[in-house]
């Protein structure tokens, strides 16, 4: 039985097969004192997938949510109309933010002109606007976030994810989901296994040994079993000061912000699924602007930015040393993963694993080069505290825009 507490944050395990109905009854009771919400970042293309159809079907049976907010990206008018119809089957109070609509574009243009909004579209920007909506609507006290491409979704995932920040007897402000990434009889989660874990340990050797604050930060991130999982839950009080990256560094950025803003005893990670699978990204070794190649560069930069803020000085020579240290640690880990796979009757293609490590090691250098060449880059989206200080009515404007869109375009 795995009940081990490692690292510096609490791990909430799935120790027994607790009936879902029992957990949902608890959440229904909690929601009377602490209203609960869910935010879903979605591409329009995901409405065509079996994954999102299953998610909507499962959410129909969830009676403890006060509000569901969907951030819709890459949708024209007819597609937005279809999205309103698609999500209208949900019994909860549902809001669909049409990020590409004229009203939201006008709000976005105003914020960009003031230099307080992310210009590039993507998941980070989508999540950021949904956070603004949650803060403005003021209808929920705790909110969960998960992706819309989870192939193996069932509603127990949501119940487990939001439970730690819903239960009034717990003092957690933030919960991070984790799970085993096994599908088709092989190990998934390559970026976590082959980049993040060995990179953290390489950074501990090269930066953590000479910088106590850097070592403390790296130990914090290394405490998470699956730091790149896209499932989070927050109490509302911690999201108004949240500064997140707009690129693939989103998940690491959120964990970094939690470390910066709240104490470790108010953070937990929770086992939310026995089986988890979602849309897979290609390695894209030939194009550093796509797939796992771009992801690895963005994530590496997220670490370098954070460590620089902790006082770590990076140099070209330092990045070459980091690459060499990472490479050795990552290759050693492949053997561990291979043996773990064999013990469990799984397959693991060692050649593909080593190809990924070679790509990631080159991308660490590319990320380091970009970091050194762009010292004035502003990687984080400003917090909503700052945005509302510049535009006190901005959250009301967003809510009004969403309501007007839904009234105008709903069938």
UniProtKB/TrEMBL annotation:
Keywords: Transferase. GO terms for molecular function: transferase activity. InterPro entries: Nucleotide-diphossugar_trans. This is Glycosyl transferase. Gene3D superfamilies: Spore Coat Polysaccharide Biosynthesis Protein SpsA, Chain A.
């Amino acid at each position: 039985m795995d009940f081990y507490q490692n690292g510096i944050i609490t791990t909430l395990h799935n120790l027994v097969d607790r009936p879902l109905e029992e957990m949902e009854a608890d959440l229904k009771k909690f929601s009377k004192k602490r209203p609960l919400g869910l935010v879903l970042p979605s591409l329009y293309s995901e409405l065509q997938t079996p994954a999102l159809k299953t998610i909507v079907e499962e959410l129909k049976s969830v009676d403890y949510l006060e509000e569901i907010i969907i951030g819709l990206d890459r949708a024209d008018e007819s597609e937005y109309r279809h999205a309103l119809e698609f999500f209208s089957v949900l019994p909860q109070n549902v809001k669909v933010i049409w990020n590409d609509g004229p009203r939201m574009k006008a709000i976005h243009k105003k914020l960009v002109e003031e230099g307080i909004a992310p210009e590039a579209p993507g998941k980070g920007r989508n999540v950021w606007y949904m956070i603004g909506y949650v803060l403005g609507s003021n209808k929920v006290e705790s909110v969960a976030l998960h992706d819309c491409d989870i192939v193996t979704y069932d509603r127990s995932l949501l119940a487990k994810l939001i439970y730690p920040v819903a239960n009034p007897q717990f003092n957690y402000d933030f919960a991070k989901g984790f799970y085993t990434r096994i599908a088709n009889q092989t190990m998934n989660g390559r970026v976590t296994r082959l980049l993040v874990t060995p990179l953290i340990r390489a950074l501990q050797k090269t930066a953590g040994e000479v910088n106590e604050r850097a070592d403390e930060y790296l130990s914090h991130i290394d405490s998470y079993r699956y730091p790149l999982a896209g499932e989070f839950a927050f109490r509302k009080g911690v999201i108004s000061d949240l500064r997140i990256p707009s690129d693939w560094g989103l998940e690491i950025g959120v964990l970094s912000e939690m470390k910066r803003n709240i104490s470790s005893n108010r953070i937990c990670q929770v086992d939310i699924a026995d089986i988890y699978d979602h849309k897979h990204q290609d390695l894209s070794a030939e194009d550093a602007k796509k797939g796992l190649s771009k992801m690895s560069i963005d994530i590496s930069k997220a670490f370098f930015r954070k460590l620089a803020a902790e006082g770590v000085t990076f140099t070209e020579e330092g990045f070459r040393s980091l690459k060499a240290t990472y490479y050795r640690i990552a290759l050693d880990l492949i053997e561990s993963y291979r043996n773990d796979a064999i013990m469990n009757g799984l397959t693991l293609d060692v050649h593909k694993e080593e190809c990924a490590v070679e790509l990631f090691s080159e991308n660490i250098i590319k990320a380091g080069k970009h970091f050194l060449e762009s010292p004035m880059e502003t990687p984080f989206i400003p917090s909503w505290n700052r945005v509302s200080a510049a535009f006190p009515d901005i959250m009301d404007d967003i809510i009004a825009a969403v309501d007007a869109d839904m009234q105008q375009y709903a069938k």
